[in-house]
Design goal:
The complex is a heterodimer of chains A (314) and B (70).
Chain A lengths: L5 E3 L5 E4 L6 E6 L4 E6 L5 E9 L5 E4 L7 E10 L2 E9 L8 E5 L13 E3 L6 E4 L7 E7 L36 E4 L9 E4 L5 E15 L2 E3 L2 E3 L1 E22 L4 E23 L2 E11 L6 E3 L4 E7 L5
Antiparallel strand pairs in A: 1-2, 3-9, 4-5, 5-8, 6-9, 7-8, 10-11, 12-22, 13-19, 14-22, 15-18, 15-21, 16-17, 18-19, 19-20
Chain B lengths: L4 E8 L4 E13 L6 E14 L6 H9 L6
Antiparallel strand pairs in B: 1-2, 2-3
Chain lengths: 314, 70
């Protein structure tokens, strides 16, 4: 490098470089602007929308004030320097996690007259600004979710007839079981840990209960029906959609890669046929509900959790 | 015993496990009326670590044992 600025530590690791975009603290957001989805079914699901003001792509960190699972579900540019950040959390507890927004220094400005600014090789774009609070990473781990959200199917239980168990009350059979555990040694020594984790892994489970019933009002002869017969067919497809999350177990300083239920529903159909001495006399049926996705698990590649200390930015 | 289930698909997972998809069926007499017969069917799956010479039927049998389907 003929021109520019490079700062290294004792281990030759880059601290500040004019060739990289260093992330700086932009803002802290204490509560969402909208609750997108909330239910206490399935152990509790919360999906909140936070809004950040940032003139560059934001990198959000969040606190995990409870032992529930968390993950960033979506970051979207809504124009005018505004970004919507959706955060998922399991559990039913009150209160909101706090968001800390980081971005390259061009995303904000400082009126402070003292400090050091490092520009990129275009001489215009700031890549480091000591007047702002640069992101200090204090830890990190690469995690991935299990392939299986649950290891066994449900017991004999849900109704096959018109989703009559109710998708909300079928939550027990969808409780996620798959957890991968990682060390988070030293997490308790960080004054206020904040985490950056994008929920990329997705999974869906569907259980299909069906039932057919034959009623013979004539004579039942060796399994055949002489006379009037009706046959009814019910199908109910109960399903649950999951996103990957992380969970901190502070007692033993471990971090879990978990599955978070995010949406659930049920689809059913019914049909009926009747016959008289084997001659069809009519039929009918119906269908309703929300059609499921397919049984699948996606995006299981390693995903990085970055840990910082939020107390530096309060 | 006639096997009341059928393995319909086996999928290798990226983390060294396999998922076995199956259907299981059971016929019951409704309300004691032998002229009203119901056949109940469940499509489900189970996930286990991959090993050599796996007996998929036995894995499904073990998963269903005690659930009311067998």
């Amino acid at each position: 490098m003929s021109y520019g600025f490079l700062s290294l530590n004792n281990n030759n690791q880059v601290l500040v470089s004019s060739d990289t975009r260093n992330l700086h603290f932009i803002q802290k957001i204490s509560s969402p602007i909208e609750t997108i989805y909330s239910t206490d079914d399935y152990g509790g699901i919360r999906q909140w929308k936070y809004r950040a003001t940032c003139n560059a792509i934001p990198l959000p960190f969040f606190t995990m004030p409870t032992a529930d699972s968390y993950g960033i579900a979506r970051i979207s540019d809504v124009g005018g320097g505004l970004w919507d950040i959706e955060l998922l959390r399991t559990g039913t507890s009150g209160g909101y996690p706090e968001l800390y927004i980081f971005a390259e220094p061009s995303a904000t400005s400082s009126a402070d007259g003292y400090g050091m600014i490092v520009y990129a090789d275009d001489g215009v774009t700031p890549v480091f600004d000591s007047r702002l609070k640069p992101l200090v990473v204090v830890g990190g781990v690469t995690v991935s979710q299990t392939s299986a959200v649950r290891y066994n199917g449900p017991p004999y239980g849900l109704s096959s007839d018109n989703c009559s168990t109710g998708p909300a009350t079928s939550g027990g059979v969808f409780t996620p079981e798959g957890i991968n555990t990682y060390s988070a040694a030293g997490i308790n020594s960080i004054a206020k840990p904040i985490y950056s984790y994008n929920s990329i892994a997705q999974a869906e489970i569907m259980y299909h209960w069906s039932r057919s019933q034959r009623d013979c009002t004539g004579f039942d002869v060796y399994g055949g029906c002489l006379g009037y017969q009706t046959e009814k067919f019910w199908d109910s497809y109960y399903w649950c959609f999951y996103r990957g999350g992380i969970q901190i177990i502070s007692n033993n300083e471990t971090l879990n890669a978990t599955w978070m239920p995010t949406r659930f529903n049920c689809y059913w159909n019914f049909r009926e046929d009747s016959s008289f001495f084997g001659i069809g006399t009519g039929g009918g049926g119906g269908a309703d509900g929300t059609w499921p996705y397919n049984n699948e698990t996606l995006n299981l590649s390693g995903n990085t959790v970055i840990i910082a200390n939020g107390a530096r930015y309060d | 015993m006639i096997k009341p289930f059928k393995v319909i698909k086996v999928r290798d997972e990226v983390d060294g496990t396999i998922t076995i998809f199956y259907t299981v069926a059971k016929s019951v007499v409704e309300d004691g009326n032998t002229q009203s017969i119901s056949t109940r069917v469940l499509t489900s799956h189970t996930n286990v670590p991959r090993t050599d010479n796996m007996d998929f039927d036995m894995i499904v049998f073990n998963a269903l044992e005690g659930t009311g389907w067998l």
